[in-house]
Known about the structure:
The complex is a heterodimer of chains A (249) and B (105). Chain A has 249 residues and is α/β, with parallel strands linked by helices. Chain A is 23% helix and 27% strand. Chain A is built from 6 helices and 15 strands. In chain A, the strands form 4 sheets. Chain A has a 6-stranded mixed sheet with strand order 3-2-1-6-10-8. In chain A, strands 7-15-11-9 form a 4-stranded mixed sheet. In chain A, α4 packs across α6. With 105 residues, chain B is an alpha+beta fold. Chain B has a domain of 65 residues. Helices cover 67% and strands 15% of the residues of chain B. The radius of gyration of chain B is 19 Å and the shape is elongated. Chains A and B meet through β14 of A and α1, β1 and β2 of B.
Amino acid sequence: xxxxxxxxxxxxxxxxxxxxxxxxxxxxxxxxxxxxxxxxxxxxxxxxxxxxxxxxxxxxxxxxxxxxxxxxxxxxxxxxxxxxxxxxxxxxxxxxxxxxxxxxxxxxxxxxxxxxxxxxxxxxxxxxxxxxxxxxxxxxxxxxxxxxxxxxxxxxxxxxxxxxxxxxxxxxxxxxxxxxxxxxxxxxxxxxxxxxxxxxxxxxxxxxxxxxxxxxxxxxxxxxxxxxxxxxxxxxxxxxxxxxxxxxx
Amino acid sequence: xxxxxxxxxxxxxxxxxxxxxxxxxxxxxxxxxxxxxxxxxxxxxxxxxxxxxxxxxxxxxxxxxxxxxxxxxxxxxxxxxxxxxxxxxxxxxxxxxxxxxxxxx
Lengths: 249, 105
């Protein structure tokens, strides 16, 4: 049984995602020690510095999606099942930084598909109060684990279906944002696939730092951020950082 | 105490409270334990429940965090792993908590 991590990375005009990837891979190698496959395009690949043994898969990202008016290449996550060379795959956003080996154990469960439906706002402002933005409890496709199995295959087929008719589902579930978000696509697909009943999830909240937090320091042990002239930090705790200015730290 | 010092103390208290809350969330995440391909929380309730069942049963059933039933056959091993994970996460919190105490000095 092979196990590994699948990452998606595409530079845009505004953001050097390859720099974020380099930090992400460094921490994975330090704390998870799993094989890594990076899905990218050649333009981005050319800029990535040598990172040791990494598998690369080249695709051209589906374009057209935006976030706050800027290009946002996030639409290809539904292809994770086909792109992963592993029997058990951990898919992560490259701005999710593993400062612990916490996720490692979730590669060894009986579950075909696990995703988190909770986040913890590290600034204690409840920034991600999702209920007001849609009629569906959202999941966070930031981190999920799947096995190559019939059930997981069907879930991904459902995700593709939701993606194809995304605007219909956006209206159906009264989702405020009109751009494509994996979080909603996954939530809708899981709800539909599971007969509108509950489904298996990670039992923890993803620690998340909102985009308005300035990252002032990043080390191999943790990060410090600044918000309203206050500096706070965390150590040895996995974190999802939404501020994409990380390369400048 | 002048208002400037009070404001400083207030900021410090806020920072400590925030760090404490984040540390507790870290404990909650770390207390998740995968055993027999199922997920459990190594919290006091689970530990007490397992210990109670272990006293009179060589093996028993319990629910994982997704409410799926699991048969536990090696009860001693399970209990020891739960306690180990619980104490590991709290030890880490304790280390951090000591830094909070020093902050006001």
